């Protein structure tokens, strides 16, 4: 596929078409050769910037971000996703922007920031309801279900998975049907309905084999391992976990290698194979630093504490335990879990409220239509009466129609008042977000600036790790704060434009 786009690029006669084929080549290189994809995307972005095509700039930034994500440069990927989102919104391509929201959600979930991921996926899903490509909507519904699986709200997860599966069957995407079946299996596993979990895992396995999707087949093997673990068949769990790990190793997907190795080690420890488990954990611990995976590192340190304790090496066990505890405290894992549960409740409540409003409006409309139908029915039943009776009936119908019209007008006025009230509430919310973003931005700039200054000095390994975590969290929060401030200003109609001479598109990258 990449070679075809490159051939089309060579034949292209305009800058816009050359740019289009280059970003497509980059996008399709993301999973096969991410570093080469980065180069294609940068070339395409330079062309899009030169010809001042904002839509193409958004597409190029999205492809560049995807390639950077798969190359392990997650922070840079997030920055370019935000640039893509801005460019596509400015150029009026909301459906494409929804896809970028979903990509951001996937990256945030990869970083274990499930709270932000659920927000991003929810924003994408709201937009995609009105988009023609239902396939993307199905993928987003699946992603929301996966977030609810992480929150252990398995019943809610199954609702989204069922919606996604219905769409995927309509568009006949076998591989993505496998994803949904796998997600449903995980939900049933969480609900301890092991029979349904086994059935869904087998459905997923069949889909992946049929579509030739080896990568996601590894996730099915991981699911079988967890299923056999629930059945206390640890030898089978170890076998399937090894099968999944071999696939991830062959594809060199490092963050999956880390997770699968951690899961395998936990089974080996319980199976009294402590030395094998410790060897695996020590091998992948270094990868958590290379790939910036602090959450997986915390789990590995905890397991290494267990293995050291089993070997009666209490000094090492204590050292690993302290390191895991300190890392857990720095990541605020318990606080995040509480916040995630609250966020899920708020999101579903707001969604139900919107649904109730729509149903009330529909019921009102149906009530008025039913009244009109009744009037027509009575009119035809009196068709053979005397002229005087007919005149009285017609007069009565006329008066009834006037009353219905008056009722409809009053209802419309009520709806309009409710709409204005909702808009006013939205403005108050936007003002609050803008004020809070301003207030938080100043201390956050101090945090990121001072942490960067401290990182330039020499420290011990632990202090350096803490400073990196502080600086990384500060930068991510600054990006979110900037987006909240800009979007709230735009929605409130108060975004100010400073007019001054400036060669805007002559720079190598698109300035946002």
Notes on the structure:
- The protein is mainly alpha-helical.
- Helix content is 85%, strand content 0%.
- Mean pLDDT is 81; it is low at 506-512.
Binned, the helix content reads over 70%
Strand percentage: under 5%
Rg of Cα set: 29 Å
> How many β-strands, per DSSP?
0
Which structural traits does this protein have?
mainly alpha, 512 residues
Explain briefly what this protein structure is.
By secondary structure, this protein is an all-alpha fold. The chain has helices at residues 2-11, 15-29, 34-51, 54-70, 74-90, 94-110, 114-128, 134-150, 154-171, 174-190, 194-211, 214-230, 234-251, 254-270, 274-290, 294-310, 314-331, 333-381, 387-455, 461-492.
Secondary structure layout plus pairing:
Layout: H1 2-11, H2 15-29, H3 34-51, H4 54-70, H5 74-90, H6 94-110, H7 114-128, H8 134-150, H9 154-171, H10 174-190, H11 194-211, H12 214-230, H13 234-251, H14 254-270, H15 274-290, H16 294-310, H17 314-331, H18 333-381, H19 387-455, H20 461-492
């Amino acid at each position: 596929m990449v070679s075809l786009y490159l051939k089309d690029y060579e034949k292209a006669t305009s800058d816009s078409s050359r740019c289009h084929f280059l970003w497509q080549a980059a996008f399709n290189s993301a999973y096969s050769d991410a570093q080469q994809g980065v180069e294609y995307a940068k070339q395409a972005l330079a062309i899009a910037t030169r010809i001042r095509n904002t839509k193409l700039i958004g597409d190029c930034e999205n492809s560049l971000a995807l390639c950077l994500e798969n190359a392990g440069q997650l922070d840079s990927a997030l920055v370019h996703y935000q640039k893509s989102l801005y460019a596509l919104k400015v150029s009026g391509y909301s459906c494409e922007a929804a896809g970028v929201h979903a990509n951001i959600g996937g990256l945030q979930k990869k970083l274990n920031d499930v709270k932000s991921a659920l927000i991003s996926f929810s924003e994408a899903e709201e937009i995609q309801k009105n988009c023609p490509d239902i396939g993307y909507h199905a993928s987003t519904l699946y992603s929301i279900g996966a977030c609810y699986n992480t929150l252990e709200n398995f019943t809610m997860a199954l609702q989204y998975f069922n919606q996604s599966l219905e769409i995927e069957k309509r568009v006949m995407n076998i591989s993505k049907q496998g994803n949904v079946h796998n997600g449903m299996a995980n939900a049933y596993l969480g609900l301890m309905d092991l029979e349904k979990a086994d059935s869904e895992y087998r459905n997923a396995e069949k889909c992946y084999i049929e579509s030739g999707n080896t990568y996601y087949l590894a996730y099915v093997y991981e699911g079988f391992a967890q299923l056999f673990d629930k059945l206390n068949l640890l030898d089978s769990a170890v076998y399937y976990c090894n099968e999944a790990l071999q696939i991830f190793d062959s594809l060199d997907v490092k963050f999956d290698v880390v997770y699968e190795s951690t899961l395998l080690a936990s089974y080996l420890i319980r199976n009294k194979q402590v030395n094998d488990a410790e060897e695996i954990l020590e091998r992948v611990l270094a990868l958590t630093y290379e790939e910036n995976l602090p959450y997986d590192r915390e789990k590995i340190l905890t397991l290494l504490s267990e293995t050291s304790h089993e070997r009666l090496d209490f000094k090492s066990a204590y050292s690993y335990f302290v390191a895991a505890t300190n890392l857990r405290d720095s990541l605020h894992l318990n606080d995040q879990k509480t916040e995630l549960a609250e966020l899920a409740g708020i999101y579903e409540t707001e969604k139900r409220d919107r649904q109730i409003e729509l149903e009330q409006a529909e019921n009102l409309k149906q009530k008025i239509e039913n009244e009109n139908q009744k009037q027509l029915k009575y009119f035809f039943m009196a068709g053979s009466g005397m002229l005087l009776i007919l005149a009285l009936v017609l007069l009565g119908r006329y008066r009834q129609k006037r009353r219905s019209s008056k009722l409809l007008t009053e209802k419309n006025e009520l709806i309009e008042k409710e709409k204005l009230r909702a808009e006013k509430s939205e403005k108050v919310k936007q003002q609050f977000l803008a004020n809070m973003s301003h207030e938080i931005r100043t201390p956050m700039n101090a945090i990121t600036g001072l942490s960067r200054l401290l990182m330039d000095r020499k420290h011990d390994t632990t202090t350096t790790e803490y400073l990196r975590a502080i600086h990384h969290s500060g930068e991510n929060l600054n990006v979110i704060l900037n987006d909240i401030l800009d979007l709230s200003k735009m929605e409130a109609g108060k975004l100010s434009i400073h007019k001054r001479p400036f060669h805007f598109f002559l720079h190598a990258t698109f300035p946002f």
